[in-house]
């Protein structure tokens, strides 16, 4: 069985991973897969650097003035994003604790789109995402990765809700 868990910096996504480890990957080997272990892919998607429409990488510096960041600044921001992503996935990988075969993947883009795309590309059996418990109005304005994936992913989607004491923190 091939499973993707969407991971971000939220406690809810880490809870979804913990639930996955405890409930789906407790058996040592999947006999239906010819003796191969199940594969868990931990996916973190970070947003690309913001573009402001003035130029390919320009940002407003005052009324009618556009500034262009240096290549060094752009590289520094990209490196910082990669380090943050690596830290998030390292923490998540520790939770797997050698209980299953796990790999990590860092993508750039809109998390809801990228999770659906990669789950289709990798032909996964199950996509698992956490749920922040947004209210109806927050979901309308902010969007919901779990809601989007449930509607548009080409594979089954499991949305893991956090326990009540964790919700709304």
UniProtKB/TrEMBL annotation:
Annotated InterPro entries: Rossmann-like_a/b/a_fold, Universal_stress_UspA, UspA
Domain spans labelled UspA: 2-161
Family matches, as Pfam families: Usp
SUPFAM superfamilies per record: Adenine nucleotide alpha hydrolases-like (SSF52402)
Protein name as catalogued: UspA domain-containing protein
Species whose genome carries this gene: Gossypium raimondii
């Amino acid at each position: 069985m091939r499973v993707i868990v969407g991971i971000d910096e939220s406690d809810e996504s880490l809870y979804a991973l913990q639930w996955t480890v405890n409930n789906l990957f407790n058996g040592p080997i999947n006999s239906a897969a010819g003796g191969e272990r199940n594969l868990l892919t931990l996916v973190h998607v970070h947003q690309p650097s913001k573009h402001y429409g003035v130029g390919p990488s320009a940002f407003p510096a005052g009324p009618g003035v556009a500034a262009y960041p240096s290549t060094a600044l752009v590289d520094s921001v990209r490196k910082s994003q990669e380090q943050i992503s690596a830290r998030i996935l390292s923490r998540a990988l520790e939770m797997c604790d050698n209980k299953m075969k796990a790999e990590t993947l860092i993508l750039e883009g809109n998390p809801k789109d990228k999770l659906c795309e990669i789950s289709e590309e990798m032909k996964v059996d199950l996509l698992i995402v956490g749920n922040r418990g947004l209210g109806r109005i927050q979901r309308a304005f902010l969007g919901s990765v779990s809601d989007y994936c449930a509607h548009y992913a080409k594979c089954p989607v499991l949305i893991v809700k956090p326990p009540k004491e964790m919700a709304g923190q």
